[in-house]
Amino acid sequence: MTMQTFRNPAGFGGALFLATVPVHLALSRDASVALAAVTLALIGGAYIGFGARAETPRTFLMELSVAILFGAAALLGLVWHWSALAIGLGLHGLWDLLHHNGLFGAPVPRWYVPFCVVFDLAAAAFVVVHYGL
Questions:
Q1: Integer Rg of the chain from CA
Q2: E strands within 1-116?
Q3: Are 38 and 74 in contact (CB under 8 A)?
Q4: Which of 28, 37, 51, 77 lies 20 to 30 Å (CA to CA) from residue 69?
Q5: What is the spatial distance between Cα 75 and Cα 78, in angstroms, rounded to a whole number?
Q6: Are the C-beta atoms of residues 123 and 36 closer than 8 Å to each other?
Q7: Looking at residue 55, what is its pLDDT?
Q8: Is residue 2 predicted with pLDDT exceeding 60?
């Protein structure tokens, strides 16, 4: 996909987040936590693909290691406490920001950073509100 595909990637990330809210509200708490955990693991895994396209094994191993940490946060959200999901989603948004302008880590499509930052931070806030109340 090109930047032209997403004229407003942040808006698209927000729209995708809003589309997931009714699903979480319709599910039981346990099923909603499981869905959030799967989402975190999948979005964390995106960087494995970006790392595989990188020019150095060091960059790939860094991206793989961080993706494993996001997977661990997802697992902790399932077996320990939902707050691990909020922390993982928030940290994923920060990880995205570190990749802004290609100054750090594997190269990512330009549209990905604003799209994912909006989705991640909105999802982290939703997790806190939805499960914490």
A1: 15
A2: none
A3: yes
A4: 28
A5: 5
A6: yes
A7: 83
A8: no
Q: Name the strand (E) or helix (H) holding 14.
A: helix 9-26
- CA nearest 120: which of 17, 27, 15? 17
Q: What angle do CA 57, 62, 65 make, to 5 degrees?
A: 120
pLDDT (0 to 100) of residue 4: 54
Residue with tokens 């790392």: 51
Cβ-in-10-Å burial (0-12, 13-18, 19+) of 39 comes to buried
pLDDT averaged over every residue in the chain? 93
pLDDT in tens, 89-116: 999 999 999 998 777 889 999 899 999 9
What's the CA gap between 96 and 56, in Å, rounded? 19
Please give the Cα distance from 40 to 36 (Å, whole number): 6
What global pTM score does this model have?
Answer: 0.92
Tokens of 107: 């190269």
